[in-house]
Fold:
Amino acid sequence: MAGSSGEQGKGRRAQPQWSPPAGSEPCRLRLYNSLTRNKDVFIPQNGKRVTWYCCGPTVYDASHMGHARSYISFDILRRVLRDYFKFDVFYCMNITDIDDKIIKRARQNCLFEQYQERRPAAAQLLEDIQSALKPFSVKLSETTDPDKKQMLERIQCAVQLAAAPLQEAVRSDLAAEDTDRRAQVLLEEAKDLLSDWLDSTLGSEVTDNSIFSKLPKFWEGEFHKDMEALNVLPPDVLTRVSEYVPEIVNFVQKIVDNGYGYASNGSVYFDTVKFASSERHSYGKLVPEAVGDQKALQEGEGDLSVSADRLSEKRSPSDFALWKASKPGEPSWPCPWGKGRPGWHIECSAMAGTLLGASMDIHGGGFDLRFPHHDNELAQSEAYFENDCWVRYFLHTGHLTIAGCKMSKSLKNFITIKDALKQHSARQLRLAFLMHSWKDTLDYSSNTMESALQFEKFMNEFFLNVKDILRAPVDVTGQFEKWEDEEAELNSSFYDKKAAIHEALCDNVDTRTVLEEMRALVSQCNLYMAARKAARRRPNRALLESVAMYLTHMLKIFGAIEEASPLGFPVGGPGTSLNLESTVMPYLQVLSEFREGVRKIAREKKVPEVLQLSDALRDDVLPELGVRLEDHEGLPTVVKLVDRDTLLKEREEKKRAEEEKRRKKEEAARKKQEQEAARLAKMKVPPSEMFLSESDKYSKFDENGLPTHDTEGKELSKGQAKKLRKLFEAQEKLHREYLQTVQNGGPE
Structure:
């Protein structure tokens, strides 16, 4: 009882006070914002929802690697924001299908086709070529850009070379068939020259408006095929200028109503002076130092919009067209100012404004679009919405160079996406982009691609090795093994690498550092597996699977793994990876085990023919089917499903290496033989004769054959005589060796 009363006196035991851990400050995503030229913390305006507008292509020709630079980079950024940082991204992109370039190219194609159909006589063709060369020569003399000048000079030279044979045919009155063949060659070489001349003389007479939609429709289709081939996600919504003309007209009207636009001779211009003088607005937010750059402004207006009469319509040289009055030979739409067509910059403002409202989170485009295109977009949009925040974060992808040079047709380094995909896979191109910062210049070169190929191969070998480990039979409880120090150390490193990767992604989506961290993690795993293999111990399945699954997940986020492959890169073609691996691997495993058994018996019974057949199966037969067998002494053969072309390339490289090794061995043997023959020849010479042939150096010799006087009859110095005596004695020793060898039956 006493004890009981004592317990009651203490009262109820209370839980001790709990303190939360101090924790650490979470890493926040920062993006390089062209509006500030700094890495700014990314804060969407509406929770996790992100509105994003990306400038799409002007579709008048094949998409090239410059386009790939922008769209693959933005695809990576979009995937990272959506799938890693878990933002709800609404991605909008436009297609420019009304533009000066499109109008001019459509007219040129139409007029050239009509010219070809008329089949002009050879004399007429030559006369037209001469007429076309006159304005072309003027254009050439006025061109200051070295690349463009080089391209024009090449065209001029090619046309003149192609014209000479036709001129000769006309003079010599050759057969019609031969003349027609030469005329066809000239037509092909002079297509650009004639197209430009025909457009300048007949362009205003083109009345078939369907050509202005037919051309962009075709090239838009090709662009989408290229993007699909590159594994670039389609936008959530795609806008075409031709479908938004009413919205563009209304957008322009409101800018005029707000006092920032004015009509002039059927066109409407943005009043940059009025806008810049407003307290609420700033003109040239992205590149203020470029404001007033007339060359850049005129390039932004387009080739068909920089004539003297058009430029005179502006109140200020920096003003730009919101709406262009259409000339004869141009498409047009009705509007309050007369028939016309949209300016270049206005399309993005109207379409993005219609879908994303008065302020979007992200606007993206190529670095070269900053001024005037994006600065003018910002100005006219903020004039429309009367705000100062149409875009919160402006992202610009870096330039693309080809082997250190600017990509241009004049340098013959203009690479289309289709051509690039003939050389490398979409994954390899994407890995090359991932190995560089999205905002910096990327050099597309053999070195860049070789780095990407090596990274792909390095990662793929790791995935194949882990798959082989996971295929080894084990019971349910056996898949959970005790961790030793090595596993704990590797796991600790794994978490460190994940943290480093997260920090890199927060730092302006630094994929270059991410891939370096991934490579380092795989290197550590490889060392762990090699140590386990050397100790004849099985690596920890669960730990390696966790690492491989994480790396697979990250590569999927980057778009480098195109399909729902559970682990590693898919094998086979698109859509076949899972079925192929799960279907054929059991059979390949049986084949491998059977081969191992046969090899064991062949070695025991000493049957080399069977071993040769076994090697031929491994080296010649299975690689043709995309199967690699790796034999390891004392360990089971490793079976790997690998891309067939990769295996065949490896086989050729192995053959080349073996051939090089054989050649070097033969060369070394030949040199050794020559050296031995030369030594033998030297050994044969008696010391008394060794100097007698050197009459160009010595004139007198003693009774032993040693020189005493030089060619001028002067007695040799003591130093010279001593040096020659040493050579004499060395030869004496060699000759004795030779005589001994001959006496013992050696070579004479």
